[in-house]
Structure formats: C-alpha cells, structure tokens
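fold-stage: in
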Amino acid sequence: MKKAIKIIVPVMLAVAIGALLWATTLRPNLVISKAEAKARFTQPTSHFIHWRGSEIHYTDEGQGVPVLMIHGFGGSFLNWNKLRDRMNTDCRVIRVDLPGFGLSDLPEPDGAGTNFTQQYRDFMTFFLDTLHLDSLYVIGNSMGGMMAWALPQTTLTR
C-alpha cells in the first residue's frame, strides 16, 4: 500500500502541475479584440445603434413581414443563420445581439442592485421604437424567449 502511494502521489502531482502549466501558459488564447471580432463577423446587413452609451449590433435583411430573432444567453445573432437563410426570401429578418453579447457592448449598470431583466426590457422597447416596428413576429431561444415573452403584447402580430 505504501509503495502504491509513493507512486500515485508523484504522478497526481505531475498531472496537476502539467494542467496548471497548460492552463496558464501553453494554452492558446482564443480571446480576440472587439475590432477583430467586428472585422470577422460584421455582415453586409449589419447595423449599429447607440443605447445608453453602448454600441448595439443587429442585422436587417429581406422583405415582407418582420420577424425578430433573439438569441439565448451566451449566444449571438449568428445562432440564427440557418433559420435566416430559410426565411429571408419571404420575410424581413431582424437578428439582434443583445447588449453584452456578440458584437454589442454592455452598458454600464444603472447602479447597485441593477435589475438586468428590466434593463433588457427597456432595451427591447428602445429597439422596437428605433426600428419603427409596430407589428412583428418574434422568435426567441432561452433568454431570448424570455425577452420575447416580456415584449409589450401590443407589438406582436397575432
């Protein structure tokens, strides 16, 4: 038993050191600058608007009935590429990067105890007003579904 411990402990220590070394120095850095992200991911249909001192990204393409696509937590407008490809010949497809995601900045919090749900509701009201959308269909995934649910019902096409 003592012999096994003398072998196992150094091996586990070497594995832990190797993992720490990989995590801190050898692993490639996948973080890119905002400028590089904009250069890589901005599309010909991309637009930027300003809200609360932040730059917010969205795409607007196609013609017809407007359809707003709202991504989930940790996502971006790119999550909707396949659905956009199927819909933009018959519909006006609007894909938004929620504040703090994708190519959009995160505005400064309102203060201590910021209600982020209310902040996103305020953003969606601003966004719909800015694009003059008074009637539309909304598709949301995960957190985007929550945002869709929180939209004023007078805005949504039934």
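fold-stage: in (second)
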Amino acid sequence: MKTIKGPAVFLAQFMDDKEPFNSLDGLCKWASNLGYKGIQIPTDPSLINLEKAAASQTYCDEFKEKINSYGLEITELSTHLQGQLVAVHPAYDIMFDNFAPDHCKGNPKARTEWAVKQVKNAATVSRRLGLKAHATFSGSLLWHTMHPWPQRPDGLVEMGFKELAKRWVPILNHFNDEGVDVCYEVHPGEDIHDGVTFERFLKATNNHKRVNILYDPSHFVLQQLDYLSYIDHYHEYIKSFHVKDAEFNPTGKKGAFGGYSDWKDRAGRYRSLGDGQIDFKTIFSKLTEYGCDVWAVMEWECCIKNPEQGAKEGAKFIQDHIIEVTTKRFDDFAGDTKTDNNKLKQILGL
C-alpha cells in the first residue's frame, strides 16, 4: 500500500488575465494559500517556455526552485492540447486549430509536427524537473465513428489504432529514453476513452512500457462505466489521478449523448468536488490499497459553482480523503508474530 500525495491542483482552468491568475507566481501563491501542496502545470507559454526548458537545465532548476519557494511541488506537466493535435480527424480541423500557434493554422501536417515536437520537449523537461509521469491526451482519428451508424467497414478500427500507435510510438520511445511515463487521460472525444480502447492502443504499441493512464472517474460517470472496477482492471497503469466530480441524471428527454445541450442542461455533467455522485472514499481506498504512486490533483470543471469556491473546497476535500497508510495491524496487540515451527505444527495438530 502507498499513501496518495496531495492535495494538488491542475492550473489550466484557473489561468486568467486577472490577478492572481495571470502569472505563475500569482497562481503559486494562490494555490499555496489554499492549502495545496502540488500543482499540475499546463505547458502554456505564459507559464513555461518548453523549448528553452528542453535545452537548459539551469532554466529548469530555476523554474522548479520558484515553485518550491511557495511550498509547492510539481506533480506533472500537461500537454493535453498538444497531445490532442498529434491525431486530428479532418472533420475537427477548424475547431482544433484553436489549439495551434498561428503559423500552423490551416496546415494539418505542420500542426501535427509542431504538436509532436512539443510533447517530446515535455518529456525532456519532465526529466530535467525530476518528474516521473506526464499528463496528455491521445488525440483521435476514430471518434466520429463512435456510434456504429453507418456501419463501420471491417478493419477500420484496427487501422485507426495502428495509425494512432504509429504517431505515438516515436514519442513514447523518447519518453522511455527520458525515463518518464505517458499518462493518457481516458476521456470522451479521444480514441482512448475507456478500458477497451486503452487495451486496443496498448496492443497497437506492442505493450509499450510507457503507455499508462491518467485516471479521472468523472469521464466514466458520463459514459455510465463502472469507475470502481476500472481500478481493479487497470491499477498497474494508473500513474496520474484527476479528482473531479460528476453526475448523471437522465430524463425522458435526454441521456448520455446530451442532445447538443450546453453543459448545465446535459444529463451527464461535471460538478465541483463533493457536489456530484462519485464515491471518492472507495476510489481513494482502492488506489491506496493497490499502491498507486499518484498525486491527487483537483481538476475544476463545474457549470454551477464559482471556480474559486470550488478550489477552496477542493483542497480540504482531497486532504480529508487521503488515507495515511497504516504501519501496523490493528490486531497486533493480541497476536504472537514470532515464527516457531514447532508451535505451528502444534496448532495444525501435526
């Protein structure tokens, strides 16, 4: 068993042009004052210069020192947006161009090359920062065929995962060289969105040792997938953990597909910690029992509650759920733990 680290917070949803959310220093001071012990950092140029960091240990040392000066640790770097751009179906080109720099917009090939370089740089920077895990998305070539109508031609899914693996294996190899695990957030909209698709990707990469999971139960609630037994199946791959709540309230008019509604009007929606339906007590127990070496990172996404209130409540929520692993058995006082073979034989009647 292993005690989960935390609480930590993912900074992406809190970045803003207003203080204290408009600078790394401001975000660090804010997070520290709320009681967070770690931060997951999106690799946005306003927070970190990936190219410079990949080339300079001094830059990374100073970056880490700044974080540590606020009593914080870096949990992981995140390339969710860049990872998404490693594999984009043309149907999504226009919308996903929002994630790319101006010189790549309208040029899918250049956009993919930029994204691959970004994610590889993040591997090197993670190693320079002393990190062992990295958070990202897989991207998607098959999501538009999620519902099998029209019928999918035989071989389509296999070809899609073969191509996805082809794009990711060189990146995974670089992460392996740097000694860092890639944790794919299992997420609707990605080709890796549940257990079956994770296994498909793992197989397509020839069981690459750096293919791992960022576990976020909220995405499984929206799919009506058993998020607790998921841990039983895949705990050995869970190297990163987003603590995010959700609820699913279907009606006679709407269900999992959402009816193209805004978030607040969907049957499945994300909620601030403690306001949804997720059984976090059991989640923390299972992850602890299985010895998952993870940070508990709050990701705030809620269509009702203010983010600052959610962050304030989230720190305490996570802290209250972290289980300090016991170093003794509760019944040690009543037992004799010394091994005596003669006594054992007597007990067995031998």
